[in-house]
Amino acid sequence: MPSYKLVYFNGRGRAELSRLIFKAAGVPFEDVRLDSSKGEWPGEWKAKAPFGQLPLLFVDGKVLAQSKAVARYLAKEFNLAGKTSWEQARCDMFIDEFEDIGAEVYKFAFEKDEAKKAELSGKFNSETLPRHLGYLEALLKENNGGKGYFVGDSLTWAGLGIANVYDLLGGTDAPFAKFPLLLALAKRVRENPKVAEYLKTRAQTPF
Amino acid sequence: MPTYKLVYFNMRGRAEFARLIFAAAGVPYEDSRIEMNGWPGEYKDHCPFGQLPVLEVDGKVLAQSIAIARYLAKEFNLAGKNNWEQALTDMIVDEFTDIMAEMKSLWFEDDPEKKEALTQKFNTETLPRLLGYLEAILKQNGSDEGFFVGGSLTWADLGLVSINDLLSVACPGSFNNFPLLAGLIKRVRETPRVAEWIAKRPNTPR
Known about the structure:
The complex is a heterodimer. Helix content of chain A is 52%, strand content 9%. By secondary structure, chain A is α+β, with helices and mostly antiparallel strands. A four-stranded mixed sheet of chain A has the order 2-1-3-4. In chain A, helix 1 packs across helix 5 and helix 3 packs antiparallel against helix 4. By secondary structure, chain B is α+β, with helices and mostly antiparallel strands. Chain B has seven helices and four strands, in the order βαβββαααααα. A four-stranded mixed sheet of chain B has the order 2-1-3-4. In chain B, a hairpin with a 2-residue loop joins strand 3 and strand 4. The radius of gyration of chain B is 17 Å and the shape is globular. The interface between A and B is medium-sized, with 31 and 31 residues.
């Protein structure tokens, strides 16, 4: 088994999906969390980063960047990426949609002007998010009536991705009120024994 | 061979990457282009996320432009020879996506003063920095005539050609200080199948 090191800040952010993949697969890894306030980032790490950013994955010392490329690599290594080329592409499609949701959140998450932040988050919650979740709910329903998973008949990183979106949206059921299949899937994934164990013990962080 | 249909607007935009992959692989497909005044029309209901492009493979549907491009690249052996190489191509393609995201945030800035300042910053700082990272990857590979990954053409190289389509219009001259990138773009554009596609593709503003 190769040695894995995942390097990020002390938060969920763009590394949490990879952490969930490691945990769901039961594969050990070094979970390095850098403290910028102590200069750990940039520190010596930035020079090792192909695009000057985190997260980074080191596999036996070789480096990979870009959070989705990292997560996909791990998902494929641990058979959590879909069983055929088509299923893998469908997983990729769902992951890209989650990324689109994340990008919308980041638009206002760091907005300092309170009035503008309220306006943007209001539009997100009343219009943008329901539209995205609506598409996801319909797609989930197409697969075995939505009682199972997004793709195929077993857990993939797409399922872990919606569990991660659940946290991104605040870790409560509320955003999913009108999307019962999505909520049920997110909860099923979060109750997967290895995932649940991780969720109980992971560091509580603001992001 | 499956039947492929790629559906998008009549422009290069987010579908050109897939079109370049079809071209490089020499695989036929239906290049379906919807006129803007025909959208949303009936087709929108076929789209998993209500957006284009969409790829139909024997009638099954795939959305999200990069997921589409990656699927085709893998089908046509243009994605990297093993999981690690594929991950490296993914990483490079994600960087192109980041460059495009930076450009989009410029275009959608309404305030003219802010837009001017952001555009300046993008052209003089952000874009050179991001292209510099990509140039460094080529340099590390150690050959002037190289490709991004694995010593042969992959979709990462075709993605560079695709983003050059965009940058050559929006930010002319952006590759002037990046000879390895410029060289790779030229070499890939001049390979027979790619050159043939570029010569015959519809000439659209973007």
